[in-house]
C-alpha cells in the first residue's frame, strides 16, 4: 500500500488551511529523489486572504506593549533551541545540507530571534527639550503595517528568521512566502512561532512561484517587501514593488573573492578557502567562489587541491563535508558551467562532476571542483555558479588583486588572508565591497550589526537584521510640541516661519 504524501498547508489568520490551488509541486529529497511532500502554488484569493488577515491583525498588534512582543520572542528562542535536532533533520532531508550545517543554518537565524527579544532597546526614538522657546521635539519609530518576505531555498531556516521576527517585533504583521523547493522546516518554525504566542493573523504564510511573488509586490495593503535570492528575481521584485510604492530590501547574487597574500598562514588560509568554497555544496550567497593568489601564494594550488580532494561528499543525514545540490536542474547547470570553463581555457585542477556516492546513486552530487588560470571574461567567473566550484586567479601584487575585486560588479563579501596589519588596513580601506573579512572567509556579521552587502548584490538602502532593519520596518515620526500656560498672554499673530 502506497503511503500518501503529506501536503504543505497555508497559514491564514492563525489557521493552517489546505490550499484550493490546482497547481502543486513536489518537495524532493535531493540525495534520494524521494518525494517528501506536496506544496501548493497559492491562488490570488488565498494571497488576498493572507494579506487581509494581516491587515486586520495589525490594528491591535501595533498597540501591543513592546514588552509583550519581546516576551514572545524570548519564548520562541527557547522553543527553537529545544527542537534544534528535529528542525535540522527536516532541513537536511529537504535541502540536502549536512546535519551540522543545518544546525548552523538554524542557529544563525536563532541569533536574530534573540535580537528581536531586545526590541525594547532597539526601537527607541530621540528627544530634545526646549529646541526653541518652550518647544520640544521628539521622534517615534512606528510600524508600517503589513510586510512581506520572499525567501530562498539555500537557507530555509535562517532567512525566514532574518525577516518575520524583526518585522513582527517592531509592531508589523507579516506574510511570508518560503521557497517552494524546501518549505517544510520553515513551516515547522512557523508552528513554533505560534506556540510561542504570536497572535492569529500577525504571521501568515503563502506558497508559490512567480505569480505569488508578483501578487505580493502588487498588493496595495503591503507596505514593505524583503527578498533574498537571485539577482534576476531580486531585480524584478525591487522594480515591481518600488513602482507600487513599497519599501524594498533585496539581497541578491554574488561573486565573493578572497585575496591570499604570500605572508598568510598557509595551513589556516587553505583550510578556510576549502571550507568557504565547498561548504553547503557552494549554495551560499556568501560562498567564497574566487581566490586571487598573490605572488608566491600561487604555488599553493597543489596543496589546496589535496585538501579539496579529501573532503567527503554524501547524503546530508550522514554528516559528510558537503551534501547534494538542491535539484537535478541545479546539478545539470553546475556541470554545464564546469564544461564551459574547460572550453573557455581555464585549467581544471579538480573535477567533481563524476562523483559517485554509494547507496545514493540518484543524488544531485557534485564534488569539489577547482579551476586555475581563470580570467574575468570566462563564464565561470562572471556567472554565479552556486555550486562547489572554486575559481583561482593570479595577481602580482595586493594592488592588482584589489583592482580585480573592485572591477567585479557584485559586492556581497570579500576577504583577505595575511599576517600584515598594514596590508589588511589597506585592503579594508580600498576594497569596494560591503562586507569585509580579515582572515575570515565568510564575513557575515552577528545581528548586533547589519548585513551590509553592496553594489550589484543589493537593492534598497537598508539591510536585513541589526539596526538597519529596525529603520526598514518602521516609519520615523517627528513630533514638535509647545504647551502654553493658561495664565499666559496669547501674544500676537506671528506670520514668520520661526518658532522662537
UniProtKB/TrEMBL annotation:
Tell me which PROSITE patterns the record gives.
Answer: ALDEHYDE_DEHYDR_CYS (PS00070)
A Pfam family (short name) is Aldedh
Gene Ontology biological process terms in this record: L-valine catabolic process; thymine catabolic process
Q: Which UniProt keywords apply?
A: NAD, Oxidoreductase
Gene Ontology MF annotations: methylmalonate-semialdehyde dehydrogenase (acylating, NAD) activity
Name the enzyme's class. oxidoreductase
- The EC designation for this entry is 1.2.1.27
Looking at the record, the residues that make up the Aldehyde dehydrogenase domain are 16-479
Entries under CDD domains matching the protein: ALDH_F6_MMSDH
Coiled-coil positions are: none
Q: Which family does it belong to?
A: Belongs to the aldehyde dehydrogenase family.
For this protein, the record's NCBIfam families field holds: MMSDH
The entry's protein name is methylmalonate-semialdehyde dehydrogenase (CoA acylating)
Annotated organism of origin: Chromobacterium rhizoryzae
Question: What gene does this protein come from?
Answer: mmsA
